[in-house]
Amino acid sequence: MLGFLRIELWTSVIEAAVSLAIIFYSWRMYRTTGSFSALALNLSFTMLFAADLIYGGTVLSTIIPPSVRATEQRAETYLRVTYGYLIRIGLEIAAYLTLGVASIYSRRPQPLMLTVAVVLGQVGIRPLIPLGEILVTAVLVFVCGMYAANLYEKRSPNSLVVFAAFVLIALSHATMVLVPIPGFLYLTSHGFEIAGFLCFLAALLLSLYPGGGRGAGEPQG
Amino acid sequence: MQVSHRAKDYRSKVAIYADILQVIDENGGRASPTQILTGANLSHGRLVMHLERLVEAGLLKEETEDDRRNYQMTDEGLNLLQEISKVKKFLDGFGLPL
Known about the structure:
The structure holds two protein chains of two kinds.
Chain A: H1 2-33, H2 36-63, H3 74-104, H4 110-122, H5 128-154, H6 157-177, H7 184-208
Chain B: H1 13-26, E1 30-31, H2 33-39, H3 44-56, E2 60-65, E3 68-73, H4 75-93
């Protein structure tokens, strides 16, 4: 069990670090431009950061004391990690919905209605963790659709990287739904999730350090 | 010249400022009101209002030569345009407007 908890912990740490970088730069972007979109992005990644912090914290609290190795403590450990996981899923749903809503703010309302219908349609599925994972996957499938449209429209490296990030994170949650017992798919899921967040980081770096730009008014998309 | 907004899209104030600064940058750092007007796709009234704000903020400098008015971008204006370009690129990736 300890091995799996360590994977959970490291995944949370990497995601939190990427989120923190995006929070920092999106806040700077908001302060510079007053852009509502930068604020929405900041809010969304703040929720993802909080999700990883809370979940990482609960996992860490079960790893640090040696009592986790004792059989009698395992039920309590499982319960604590489950609560942390549920809070994380709730925050992730809120974060991805914020991004999705922000991305269609200036477009059409139909995708939002579709998402709400998909989300509401899934309520009632038990138990809670698969429900949460299914909800996150449903929201992410919608978000992927939005970013596929964005990629088709912009055809820029940035939109490709962001689309890849959401596809990887959606795959991560989809594979997690398929995992009844931790195993190979469990590792694959975490690998997808880390890769997805690293794509977000790549998108940020591509924006901050564009190669071969000609100064201020470099051509875009 | 590139004004990236579709006709139906709402442009935020910062997006309009970015378009104005970009038009001036693409004209070598100095442009006439007519060049800015056509390049940034603005009405005359709105252009005058925005140009006044940009001059007040120290992002543009107004120059008159042979009864012709021109607007020159200051270092602060260029810095802001560079920052906005980065922000725009990042937000574009997420499909978000400036």
